[in-house]
Task: structure prediction
Amino acid sequence: MTILVGAFLLLAVGACATAVVRPVRAAPALAAIAGGLGCALGVVAGVAALARGAHEIWTVAWSAPIGSLAFGIDPLSAFFLVCVFAVGGLSLLYAAGYFAGEPDARSAARAAAWLQLLVAAMAGVVIARDAISFLVAWEAMFLASYFLVTFDDRDERVRSAGFVYLVASHASVVLLLVFFGTLARHADGLAFAEFAAAPLAGRPAMAAFAVALAGFGIKAGLWPLHGWLPEAHPAAPSPVSALMSGAMIKMGVYGLLRSLAFVDAAPAACGMALLAVGGVSAIAGIALALAETDVKRVLAYSSVENVGIVALGIAVGMLGRAAHAPAVAVAGFAGALLHVLNHGLFKGLLFQAAGAVAHATGTRDLNALGGLLRRMPATGALCLVGAVAISALPPLNGFASEWLIYFGALSAGRPALGGGHAAVAIAAVPVLALAGGLAVACFVRLFGVAFLGEPRSPEAARAHECRPPMIAAMALAAVACAAIGVAPGLALRIVAAPALELAGSDATGLAPAAASLAAVSRVVAWLVAAAALLFAGRALLLRRRAVARAVTWDCGYAAPTPRMQYTATSFAEPALEPFLPLLSVRVRRRPVTGIFPERAELDAAVTDPGAAAIARAARALTAPFERLRALQRGPVQLYLLYVLLTLIALLVWQVRA
Amino acid sequence: MRTAVACTWAALLLLALPPLLLGIVVRVKAIAAGRAGAPLLQGYRDLARLLRKTPVYSGTTTWVFRAGPIVALAATAAAGCLLPLGAGAALLAFEGDLVLFAYLLGLGRFAMMSAALDTGSSFEGMGASREAAIGSLGEVAVFLVLVTLVVATGELSLSAIFAGLDAGGGNPALWLAAAALAAVLLAENARIPIDDPTTHLELTMVHEVMALDHSGPDLAFVEYGAAMKLAVTSALLVGLVWPAAARQPIALAGGMIAVAVAIGLVESAMARLRLPRVKQYLIGSAALAGVALAAELVLRGAA
Result:
């Protein structure tokens, strides 16, 4: 606990120091050192708590009417602390490089301070043990991230994105208030321990789960409540996007997992509902990512997909638990948790690479990029690692977590389990397969169009490599991705304790998955050995041969230009085509007319029907309140009149009572 | 001792047989068209010739282009090590290896598509884009077949599944699954009716166009990897249709050759589908696999 307090103190002191330090230019570096140390301490504290299986509660006296605040740590908290601090530390390191070149040094210093507060607030959410402290930390997390999203507040679009984020977050808080209020009334207390001691059951439990799913689902970015994600991420600076997508949206996942204990052994129906929501999120998210051409929006939609995959894992775990099948439940929860960590690493890495690209070229439009691997070799290679990892391909970490979810879902299909509710979990398999196939298409496209081939614009041709702290942050994330991928058995040890607790199983439930993950390591070793052997063989064959250089063979065409390359849009079309009836496509065209046609144009953009429907519903809901604007006229006299009228009304009411 | 024999057989089937399979396909097509055709062993000669050649690289390409064929070949070989080839369980069998099998083939696809995009050629970009579409839909069908097998046998490892299928002969759900797998096999290996390996028009190619810029040993790796993928997927199909063969190396080789003959006959009898139809073909095979799974679940419920 001392280490954890140390981490919080370092982040808080670091934030204050960053905000006031002179010269202002030194602020991001200071944030990286103080905050980075704090995060390192936090990771140590989390790992130590996991290792000793800590279940501790600390109560802090509080003079306000609510009595005392409770904080605590258990395996689930400890695991999420590791995620938050690991992604937070990498983002702070990256920010030191990213903000170093920011023309507005004052804003950069403020952002660096907010970043540290955001990390601290997320850690606070994770260790909160009563409704009040949880909601306070939750709001602190929102405020810190809001000021980070609106960093560039001179831009109209950024302000509007900030407003969307504000509305979405507060809708989430309203739902959480309802959820915690219901629990508090039922348990007659505000502490999580009291909620867990008197869990809801039956229909009220299902209703409460639905409210929690909606409330936490907004934060996590589950479809169709994800509307704020593709707005806020492109608006925010890249280290902020990395932290928000890598860690902050996982707070929604954490909240959902935490509340499973409050709705007694959430019934199988809840698991099926979550399976459906997760499946739709996974496929809709990746299809929309494939349709986007703005690099950061692609990554934002891919977060929707990955949260959907996490939800699928949780659903498999819930169904397994409901069917008393520990092998299914443990694999599902372990896969979901490991995917939370993995996604933090590779999505952080990809957002950081996207930031480096945007920094170097001044554009985020995929169709204006190309050929960056020659100009930014380190960023390109690291981005490739992230792309392979997020496509869930061996030998990297994304495969390990998705494999666990597959393993849980496939185990549910074994007749030995007697079928029942658990068998529904096999529905996750084809969904994961489709999402996986589309993810390969999406990230080959992202990496291939941005980094390979020839530059599609003069800006891309002039790109330069990014600063060393940014490369260092990306390299650390890439090393972690590779380590988890090569030794998934070790990674399983990090998620074992919380997964076993969520699944309500003893350590035997973990054995089948652990044995198989060890075998995955073996196959990965063979794969690497085979590739190394082939490289060596090729080098041997080419020894003393003069390898010739030429232009790309374009089927006899002698003067290929960069404009002839496949663009991101054209690459996506065949894979996306089966899904187009489900998405809304806006096409603007000026067709070719006449014998000597003038300028012809075709511009197609895919919009997101889910987010649009939610936005329409929100507008319909708020429309009646527009009338209240009539009250707001401006003259102070009028407002004084309102005060007077209110007082008279109150007086009349009192007199009559 | 037994394992040494098993390894030798697996190595023979995985490493030595693949070029012969392609030779058989070509020969069957030639005979069906009334020609004599190339020698059966032409594939081996082509590989040897390519390995002796010096490659030419486009100035646009980077190390990604050179790594693509190597990673694809290594991934296919690793996937082959997860299949029971001839004698008993696979070399690297474990519970849940079927997922790794499918994802290793996915890694190969990722590597080849990245290498294609690295050339900056519009044709290769087109091929990669089509491969991505075919791969994403094909994956669904493959996994639905695998789930059907898991439900039918209660096993999670390819080796144990094929060992357990013996008892389940005559199961109609498995025949549906086999039909779906056969349809996906044609798509995954870029055969007619999805892709025509002998076409001369780059605009209609998928697999071949992605290898336009590769030459020398790199092209040898690409060709060899494609042949190995054909061998691996046909071994999977043989194991499903004729499970007893999975334990008999000679029978398995015979089965794989039979698959090659069947591919040759299909290619002689059919034309390539128009590209918009490919989507329907793949969704159809996924639907077939879905029906197989539903049938298996219903049959299990009835039993």
Chain B has a mean pLDDT of 89. The longest strand of chain B covers residues 56-58.
